[in-house]
Amino acid sequence: MRLTILGGGGFRVPLVHRALLDDPARAVTEVTLYDTDADRLRVIAAVLERQAAGRERPVRVRLATDLDDALRGADFVFSAIRVGGTAGRVADERIPLSEGVLGQETVGAGGVLYGLRTIPVALHIAERAAALAPDAWVINFTNPAGMVTEVMAEVLGERVIGICDSPVGLVRRAARAAGADPDAVSYDYVGLNHLGWLRSLSYEGRDLLPGLLADPEALGSFEEGRLFGAEWLHALGALPNEYLHYYYFRRETLASVRAADETRGVFLDRQQGGFFEAAGRRPEDAYALWERTRLEREETYMAESREASGGWQRDTCDLEGGGYDRVALALMHAIAGDRRARLILNVRNGTTVPALAPEAIIETVCEVGADGARPLPCAPLRNDQLGLMLQLKAVERATVEAAVFKERDAALRALALHPLVDSPAVAARILERAAD
């Protein structure tokens, strides 16, 4: 199979390449890396060359700076672009923080700003993919993944599927904490991207989640348990996606972010800029530089939320990086080989959540095969879960409308209706500053 990665000069591309090298089936024989930045492409190519050294039948890597050339002939397309680069992320975080609200890149005002910038580019990619690789499956990594997948689906229909590593990480950590094999459990997970809940975790016909939620020691053994605290998780009756910490503990997280020496975006802009500069000068050291930079990136992931919940270090098993790369590989195998698999994916709702439109993108457990991904029925949502989903879906739809039709009213609505933005006046000022 031929795979194209859009955003091929991205820092996390070597994780995907590593998964392809470790794939016993060697299903992907050629990877095309596309990026608008030729210098970054060359650096990542140097990392991949060293990573593949000594491997039998390494995956052929081709570089491209022309989108049409990259798409033509692809069987699968990974979309992992960052419109505006890390400098754009810095602005997405700083502008809302200057108004006293969270600016994280996928939630809150920062996520809306990122979506406004990214959606037109994602729509263009979908149109070119439909024209040049109509039989290809597009797997979307690009954030904000829910709204980006939704706008791409308006062109590609069910041939675009969004993925995220947060839900599968949650399931695996919860299963280990409950004493079960993560590969042997079944589960009920539903929500939107970065806004979902694990609501059952079954092994050999028994739901392990109630017992886990009643066990403070077990909850304290993994990230989400420490992040949200045993008392709140027991009261909530579910395990939330880690990103819900921004909503449930917004005051504490905002205080932690504002007290930090720098935002996450500033850290990554400085860190990745330093990596690409050094690796560009010393391509022979690119792999070692990348591995060292990657580990630091994983160690500091969601540091502000961990600080807000008492301060603690990530477990060694959570520092491998990625996770989404393995989900993507499993998804490709399931589609290309018609191997039935159950994965948590971002797909069209259909009738899964009756309160949402059939074409709305949700994140839930799907059965995957040659015909794509189909969401499985789930238990009814509680009012608090459904209410938050409906409000955030309204924000997503307004963001799409604003980005596609250049509607300022829709952009204002997207920002002002977000639960992490506390005033339409604040929303208007954020919008004005972002336009400068």
TrEMBL record:
Pfam families: Glyco_hydro_4 (PF02056), Glyco_hydro_4C (PF11975). Residues 189-421 form the Glycosyl hydrolase family 4 C-terminal domain. Its cofactor is NAD(+). It is an enzyme of class 3 (hydrolase). Its EC number is 3.2.1.86. GO terms for molecular function: 6-phospho-beta-glucosidase activity. Keywords: Glycosidase, Hydrolase, Manganese, Metal-binding, NAD. InterPro entries: GlycHydrolase_4_CS, Glyco_hydro_4, Glyco_hydro_4_C, Lactate_DH/Glyco_Ohase_4_C, NAD(P)-bd_dom_sf. Binds 1 NAD(+) per subunit. Belongs to the glycosyl hydrolase 4 family. This is 6-phospho-beta-glucosidase. It comes from Streptomyces ochraceiscleroticus.
